[in-house]
Amino acid sequence: MVGAKVHWFSILNSFMVITFLAGIVLVIFLRTVRRDLTHYEELDKEAQAQMNEELSGWKLVVADVFRAPSNPGLLSVMVGNVVQILGMAVVTIMFAALGFMSPASRGTLVTGMLIFYMVLGNSADYVAVRMW
């Protein structure tokens, strides 16, 4: 490379700014975590005293764990939608990684996502019906 000049000062300046900002974030994070830990220790001591007097939360909801949901149709539809959207995302990413969706051709990604969303509707229907 004949005319290539490395801008060492700019690289060093960027590195120093990033290091400085990361240090500030680290200090703020450590202060917050330290304050939260002391607060939680105080709450834990109070909770231990109350727990000896009352029933714990698990004992209150132990019977509700195996209870059927109040709206099973809505739950099954939501799970079906999650399956459809996750399937669409996985297949789209896989096709893009394999090179079938080139960044040079605009709109290929969105078109592929729409097509995969429509095609994977059958799997969402199957999962929703099986769950219901």
Descriptive account of the structure:
This protein is an all-alpha fold. It folds into two domains: 8-57; 68-131, no CATH class. Helix content is 77%, strand content 0%. It is built from five helices and no strands. Helix 3 (72-98) runs antiparallel to helix 5. It starts with 7 loop residues before the first helix and ends with a helix. The model has no long low-confidence stretch (mean pLDDT 86). Keywords: Endosome, Golgi apparatus, Membrane, Signal, Transmembrane, Transmembrane helix. InterPro entries: EMP70 (IPR004240), MFS_trans_sf (IPR036259). It holds the Pfam family EMP70. It is a multi-pass membrane protein. Belongs to the major facilitator superfamily. Phosphate:H(+) symporter (TC 2.A.1.9) family. Belongs to the nonaspanin (TM9SF) (TC 9.A.2) family.
Supply the key terms.
flat, 77% helix, 132 residues, mainly alpha, MFS_trans_sf
Number of helices: 5
Element-level helix/strand string: HHHHH
Number of strands: 0
Give the overall shape, derived from the CA principal axes.
flat
